[in-house]
Amino acid sequence: MTGEAAMAVNAKKVAVYVVVVFALYVIVTDPAKAADYVQIGFQGISDAAQALGDFATWVADGGK
């Protein structure tokens, strides 16, 4: 690996570590808020899947 690629990999590892530590901190300090965040995330995923399904249906119907 070149120096630049190695730095990018290390930066990614640090970013993932920071996100994991933050998530654990939120879970430990305020479990109810953590549950709300999870629910919001799943709602977003559900909405995105619904939108993709609607788009696929629209395309299958010939864009009408």
Distance between the termini: 51 Å
Q: Which class best fits the helix and strand makeup?
A: mainly alpha
How large is the share of residues in beta strands?
A: under 5%
Q: How many individual helices? A: 2
Arithmetic mean pLDDT: 90
Cα Rg? 19 Å
In short:
It is built from 2 helices and no strands. It is mainly α.
Question: How is the topology of this model organized?
Answer:
Layout: H1 3-29, H2 31-60
Index terms:
single chain, 64 residues, mainly alpha, 2 helices, 89% helix
Structure overview:
- The chain has 2 helices and no strands.
- It is flat.
- The chain is mostly helical and 64 residues long.
- The mean pLDDT is 90.
- Helix 1 (3-29) packs across helix 2 (31-60).
